[in-house]
């Protein structure tokens, strides 16, 4: 039998095109229409959608398009107050679940566009018990898992491949409506009495039951409702005008304990501490996946408030796993540095929660990325001369950096700093080596950080003995050198050549394969303590010449002449008389 609307009209819809065409005709408002006809038009739209939603409004996009047609029509554009009251009255009195589904969906869509509609406690208070009754309905999680928010049927209409129970859709929609109401309203403690311990415990249990669903939307919706209720209890427990004694709040500790006792969300979670781990894990995942949309920004604030409460409550500071806390630190580092100036209050909330996160949880004894945390905090307050820094940000950063974890970490860095290795003194640890280094410093042979290794012939000779024959440098004339006394005795003479000669030698050393590095401890000790290594007295080298003159031949060639002095010259080998 085809459905009949309030006017007695019977609809016969065979495809999606007819459905959408008829829906647009219903919302067409003729001129000079009475208020009764306007009310009937709204109810006609709702009943028509309720009759065909399983065929032609299967996906969220299709539902959203239908509600957009209603919100853009003249019914709500010019008669919003009257139409919204009708929707609420029909939602309280409706018994058909299909009709309730359409009414709740329209209320949610209209409330998201008009927050003042959701803030009206007088309107919503009678509807809250009905929404809670839909939440506690027993639905098989395996069946509800098929409702993933995707199109289960074709765009041209037809039956869905898998029929989703209407109770599952009503429960998901009721959770979202309750969250929106609790997010924008400010309820008092008497008004919060409706949310009993049993109902809140069921919400936590619902999170655990739906943790394996492929679509996490419903699971996250329940978590958002829990954190919104937590914020309601936190705000309602705060005294409006706290009494002061001698300028200080009186009985602050007792009031804090009383507030914790009145917060039913915290009280139920403490009782379920060992059986609600999915709630904590998914709460961190939600924080990690949050975008910059207004809805996600609000969700982040609500989650951070509950995290602060857990970290500062005795017995709940170690509720999370250590790995989850490390993920939370990574999220904090990313968000604190990436939040723009328009959301400074969100950054302040992150900073307020960061302090107990690092001082109250397992991270106080299991450090994680402390250097990066300090750098991120310091970057918020640096360059104060270039741009203004918010005083609250400066105060919260100072609080975080004054924690014991930060003080101990900086003390560890100052005590355990590695020694500098760019100075020759770092390679000398024995007294003998230190004395030799001091003697060389007095003689002016060491030049501080830019000290270069000495390239004198004596030092090269010592380096050659220290490195061994396999590590010495080989030049192109090594094959012509003979192990004669003249060549050996010519090395001290080469050391006394003028400054340009040594400069040429240094340039060749840099161009060669030997790297320019400070002397090894062996060479420093051998050159500074020659009296202990050699019994022969050293001959004092002659003073350098007063005027710098280029040498006739470089050091290598003088060595060549010394090597070839005992060999016959080429002119001697030629026959005489030519």
UniProtKB/TrEMBL annotation:
Chain intervals with Low complexity compositional bias: 487-504, 523-535
GO cellular component: actin cortical patch
Polar residues: compositionally biased ranges: 561-570
InterPro entries: SPIN90/Ldb17 (IPR030125), SPIN90/Ldb17_LRD (IPR018556)
A single MF term (Gene Ontology): Arp2/3 complex binding
UniProt-annotated stretches for the region Disordered: 417-447, 463-578
Domain SPIN90/Ldb17 leucine-rich: 215-372
Example GO biological process: endocytosis
PANTHER family per record: NCK-INTERACTING PROTEIN WITH SH3 DOMAIN, SH3 ADAPTER PROTEIN SPIN90 NCK INTERACTING PROTEIN WITH SH3 DOMAIN
Annotated protein name in UniProt: SPIN90/Ldb17 leucine-rich domain-containing protein
Source organism of this protein record: Postia placenta MAD-698-R-SB12
């Amino acid at each position: 039998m085809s459905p009949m609307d309030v006017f007695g009209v019977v609809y016969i819809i065979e495809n999606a095109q007819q459905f959408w065409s008829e829906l647009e005709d219903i919302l067409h408002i003729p001129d000079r229409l009475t208020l009764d006809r306007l009310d009937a038009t709204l109810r006609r739209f709702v009943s028509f959608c309720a009759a065909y939603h399983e065929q032609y409004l299967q996906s969220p996009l299709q539902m959203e398009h239908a509600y957009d047609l209603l919100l853009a029509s003249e019914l709500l554009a010019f008669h919003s107050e009257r139409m919204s009251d009708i929707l609420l009255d029909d939602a309280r009195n409706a018994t058909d679940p299909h009709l309730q589904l359409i009414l709740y969906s329209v209320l949610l869509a209209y409330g998201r566009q008009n927050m003042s509609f959701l803030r009206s406690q007088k309107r919503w208070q009678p509807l809250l018990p009905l929404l809670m009754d839909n939440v506690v309905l027993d639905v098989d999680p395996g069946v509800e898992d098929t409702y993933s928010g995707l199109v289960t049927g074709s765009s041209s209409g037809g039956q869905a491949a898998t029929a989703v129970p209407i109770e599952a859709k009503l429960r998901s929609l009721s959770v979202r409506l309750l969250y929106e109401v609790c997010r924008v309203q400010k309820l008092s403690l008497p008004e919060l009495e409706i949310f009993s311990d049993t109902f809140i415990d069921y919400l936590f249990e619902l999170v655990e039951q739906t943790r394996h669903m492929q679509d996490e939307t419903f699971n996250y919706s329940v978590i958002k409702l829990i954190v919104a209720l937590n914020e309601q209890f936190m705000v309602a427990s705060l005294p409006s005008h706290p009494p002061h004694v001698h300028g200080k709040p009186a009985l602050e500790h007792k009031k804090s304990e009383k507030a914790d006792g009145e917060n039913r969300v915290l009280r139920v979670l403490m009782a379920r501490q060992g059986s609600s781990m999915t709630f904590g894990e998914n709460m961190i995942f939600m924080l990690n996946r949050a975008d910059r949309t207004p809805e996600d920004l609000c969700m982040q604030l609500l989650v951070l408030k509950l995290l602060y409460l857990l970290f500062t409550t005795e017995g709940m500071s170690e509720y999370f796993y250590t790995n989850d806390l490390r993920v939370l630190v990574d999220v904090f580092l990313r968000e604190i540095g990436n939040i723009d100036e328009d959301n400074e209050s969100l950054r302040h909330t992150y900073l307020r929660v960061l302090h107990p996160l690092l001082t109250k949880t397992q991270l106080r004894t299991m450090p994680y990325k402390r250097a990066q945390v300090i750098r991120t905090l310091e970057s918020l307050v640096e360059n104060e001369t270039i741009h203004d820094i918010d005083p609250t940000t400066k105060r919260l950063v100072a609080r975080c950096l004054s924690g014991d974890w930060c003080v101990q970490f900086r003390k560890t860095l100052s005590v355990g700093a590695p020694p500098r290795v760019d100075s020759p003194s770092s390679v000398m640890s024995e007294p003998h080596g230190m004395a030799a280094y001091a003697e060389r410093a007095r003689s002016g042979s060491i030049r501080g950080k830019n000290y270069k290794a000495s390239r004198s012939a004596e030092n090269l000779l010592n380096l050659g003995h220290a490195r061994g024959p396999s590590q010495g440098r080989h030049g192109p004339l090594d094959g012509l050198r003979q192990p004669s006394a003249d060549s050996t005795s010519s090395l001290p003479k080469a050391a006394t050549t003028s400054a340009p000669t040594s400069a040429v030698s240094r340039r060749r050393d840099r161009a060669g394969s030997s790297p320019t590095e400070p002397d090894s401890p062996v060479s420093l000790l051998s050159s500074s303590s020659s009296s202990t290594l050699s019994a022969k007295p050293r001959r004092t080298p002659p003073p350098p010449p007063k005027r710098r003159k280029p040498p006739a031949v470089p050091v290598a060639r003088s060595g060549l002449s010394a090597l070839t002095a005992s060999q016959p010259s080429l002119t001697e080998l030629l026959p005489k008389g030519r």
